[in-house]
Design brief:
Layout lengths: L2 H19 L11 H4 L6 H11 L2 H11 L4 E4 L8 E4 L2 H10 L8 H8 L13 H10 L5 H30 L7 H17 L5 H9 L24 H17 L4 H9 L2 H27 L9 H16 L5 H32 L9 E3 L5 E3 L26 E4 L6
Antiparallel strand pairs: 1-2, 2-5, 3-4
Helix pairs in contact: 7-14, 8-9, 8-10, 9-15, 11-12, 11-13, 13-14
């Protein structure tokens, strides 16, 4: 066979292969034309954005803005199907609440959470097993539980936080100091008390550590931050923070399962998971012992108390027993979810107070290095709070997003 014929055949084969591996567009849904002609699709743009901002989900919202459409399609998995991004609130609400038989959990989210909570209900398809397992934890988000069990513990932790900030502000004498870690500790204190029923007192430990100190070495420059002495922190909280940070990394990875496996080989994460498993096993053992000794006709005092009651009820009613592995994953997921939401609410409230600092009844703040804040008016209780990253400009038509891997035949 002549050389030109072989070259032509090779070019033809390569052209066909190239065409076959190109992303396939779903008809009628906007997309970026350049991504359609790239074997990797939108993945390079996504990775570049995540590298700059560490927020992959914001990137999905931005695609709706760039293409000026409440529904768009992107390709984030080479040789994989298109991902549909929907940002219309009413449609999203309809899918999430009323069309669960047509739309189930996306494989990507299952992959993200596989390493952290393989038996958690958030990874399960909506079947009878999911419903039975989810029902055990269902009432921990009810108004009655939040009002009678969670609210008093959160209030107590917040009072401790204000006491700590008042003490720090007194020692700082107008200098800024870091306060975001205090919010994390207060949230974990509250959620631990809500979950188990007992307090570890991380914030009070910091207060006790700072109380004997009369003064600190302060810089002449009022804008220079003060390094506050730190008291001991429960090692479980450190493990929880490490695992949460790893989980956040999974959401920006194109291959979450492989990424988690690699991270799991590092001693720090390996120790964190081992400590997490040991702590939760001890927590379950203690909660079950207390459950057997108490009167079951009285209101539940913690989430664990409530869950164990529901577990016994489910076993008596239909013979369902949740496995220890699933119970541990559900409990750990509860700790992560509720502590994160509590931290977000506290940060948001503090940011709101910061934005209203011109009001006379609020203390005045002065900006310091590294975007920290300090109290300059000590006649009122302090509310020191670090300035977080500037909030991006509100995105139109991006109230929420649903990612759906479409499996129908593309055009």
């Amino acid at each position: 066979m002549a050389l030109p014929t072989l070259v032509l055949l090779a070019v033809s084969v390569l052209s066909v292969l190239y065409w076959l591996v190109l992303p396939r567009a779903l008809p009628g849904i906007p997309y970026h034309r350049k991504s359609r002609r790239n074997i990797l699709g939108d993945l390079p743009r996504l990775l570049d954005y995540v590298k700059k901002t560490s927020d992959p989900f914001e990137w999905f919202s931005l695609q709706c803005v760039e293409l000026e459409s409440p529904i768009v399609q992107v390709w984030i998995k080479p040789l994989g199907p298109a991902v549909v991004v929907l940002s219309d609130f009413r449609e999203v609400e309809d899918i999430v609440l009323r069309r669960t038989k047509e739309f189930d959990r996306a494989p990507f989210m299952k992959a993200v959470l596989k390493g952290t909570g393989p038996y958690h209900s958030i990874r399960m398809s909506t079947d009878e097993t999911f419903k039975a397992q989810r029902k055990i934890f269902m009432d921990t988000m009810s108004p009655a539980f939040l009002h009678e069990v969670a609210a008093p513990q959160i209030y107590s932790a917040t009072v401790d936080l204000v006491q700590l900030w008042r003490l720090k502000a007194s020692l700082a004498k107008g200098h800024p100091f870091q306060a975001d870690v205090d919010i994390i500790h207060a949230a974990l204190d509250a959620i631990w008390a809500v979950t188990v029923g007992g307090s570890v007192g991380t914030t009070k430990t910091q207060v006790d550590h700072l109380t004997p100190i009369n003064s600190l070495d302060l810089a002449k420059d009022k804008d220079e931050a003060v390094k506050m002495p730190k008291g001991p922190v429960p090692i479980f909280f450190s493990a929880l923070t490490t695992i949460t940070a790893a989980l956040e990394t999974m959401t920006s990875s194109p291959s979450p399962v492989l990424h988690h496996f690699i991270l799991r080989q590092f001693p720090k994460l390996r120790r964190a998971f081992a400590l997490k498993d040991k702590s939760i096993e001890s927590m379950l053992k203690q909660a079950r012992a207390q459950f057997l000794d108490q009167e079951h006709d009285k209101p539940a005092k913690s989430a664990m108390d409530h869950v164990l009651r529901r577990e016994v009820g489910a076993a008596e009613k239909n013979g369902y027993h949740i496995s220890d592995a699933a119970l541990k994953d559900e409990l750990f997921g509860f700790l992560i979810a509720v502590s994160s939401s509590s931290m977000l609410c506290t940060r948001t409230g503090s940011m709101d107070l910061q934005s209203r600092r011109a009001m006379k009844q609020l203390p005045q703040y002065c900006a310091g290095p590294r975007n920290t804040l300090a109290i300059t008016n000590m006649s009122k209780p302090p509310c020191a709070m670090p300035s977080l990253k500037p909030t991006p400009k509100p995105l139109p038509q991006t109230i929420s997003c649903v990612l759906v891997s479409h499996t129908s035949t593309p055009s």
